[in-house]
Design brief:
CATH superfamily of the largest domain in chain A: Jelly Rolls
Order of helices and strands of chain A: HHEEEEEEHEEHHHHHH
Shape of chain A: globular
Radius of gyration of chain A: 17 Å
CATH architecture of the largest domain in chain A: Sandwich
Oligomer: homodimer
Largest sheet of chain A: 4 strands, antiparallel
Structural class of chain A: alpha+beta
Strand content of chain A: 15-25%
Number of helices of chain A: 9
Largest interface: A-B, 30 and 30 residues
Strand order of the largest sheet of chain A: 1-8-3-6
Chain lengths: 186, 186
DNA sequence: TTAATTAATGGACATTTGTCTTTTCTGCTC
DNA sequence: GAGCAGAAAAGACAAATGTCCATTAATTAA
């Protein structure tokens, strides 16, 4: 996490150490949950190793994969973290996972004492915004096949490491259709 | 704009007045542009009256409406504003529009002198994130008809006031299909 | 290692959505 | 009020995607 935080060139060494001093190690087995629907998200996880996926359940009972986090990234049910309202997301380990947990109260406390902490929180929100914008663009204008092809180009690790049934809902299509697209692309 | 800023209960009266003192009135006729593709976004517009739409052009030459802003909301090519990179968005007045413009350098200067300014910037980023999350959810799991029905419920002013050809691309469908959905819904 | 379970594939068909084009409607200008 | 231009609607057909189900492949558990 230290290297990751340094890569933004925003926080000082001391500020980074303060974050690290608050972090707790937390391990999950494959299939275990980091947060479940209905809870209020007040923890941010840094993924040291393994893969997490976030999904929500539709009224019809289908699981929709919203987000997938690999090594060296942050993961939380962000809109619940922001708003303090119960989340609709479930965040689950799809491999054994080693996390470093940061509590919201600690993050907020650092943000109150250090302007840089606040700047960093703003930067995170902005980065998340830009990532979602790319997704909106791709849903708006691309066919399912194009979305799959772009994922193959930009995030090959998704296709290599994530079960296809999760990828299908991430792309907004059915597993049947994803299987068909893959067959057509050989 | 003053009332709008007050509604967040975050900025002090003085801070709000500082923002207002930097704002410039700017009027656009129907069809005129606030920003064009390729420019770097360093201005935020508060819409005092009228309607703006943001669109980008696909490689095939189709205009895709990304975002629509009514009275009493902020509008900018946000990811370019954040990143400092050229935008892909065009922001156009679709009615005569009265704007209050805030320059990025002024906003940043206020954020440097006032922690509340920075908090406000963070809040804006978070709100934009949450709005996009809702859109991603809706593209992921809803059919075109459901997206249209939800828009009808949650943002009836969109259907009432926005040309359908713009709404179609906002929903990620063709005008032909939107017309069909509307015909089927009577 | 084998059995059991889950994931992925694929066939057959239905539904949704897109393409291309024409027609109708609406608002505007002269 | 006639004529024009752009927007919306709609017909006919094609392509994309979904549903339901059966089969095969891969994983997991005993």
């Amino acid at each position: 996490m230290k290297e990751y935080l340094q890569s933004f060139h925003l926080l000082t060494e001391d500020e980074i150490d303060t974050f690290l001093s608050k972090a707790e190690v937390y391990n999950l087995e494959r299939g275990e949950y980091f947060i479940r629907e209905g809870a209020i998200s007040n923890t941010v996880a840094f993924v040291e190793s393994g893969i997490l996926r976030s999904f929500y359940v539709t009224p019809e009972g289908d699981e929709m994969t919203y987000c997938i986090s690999f090594q060296n990234s942050f993961m939380t049910a962000y809109s619940s973290y922001i708003s303090g309202l119960p989340t609709v997301e479930n965040i689950q380990a799809i491999t054994p996972v080693r996390l470093l947990l940061l509590q919201k109260k600690d993050i907020e406390q650092i943000s109150e004492t250090s302007t840089n902490g606040l700047r960093f929180a703003k930067l995170m929100a902005e980065n998340e915004y830009m990532e979602l914008e790319r997704r909106v663009f791709s849903y708006q204008r691309e066919s399912a096949r194009e979305r799959y092809e772009n994922l193959l180009l930009t995030r090959p690790e998704f296709i290599e490491q994530i079960p296809l049934k999760y990828l299908a809902s991430y792309l907004g299509i059915t597993p049947r259709h994803l299987s068909r697209l893959r067959a057509e692309m050989i």
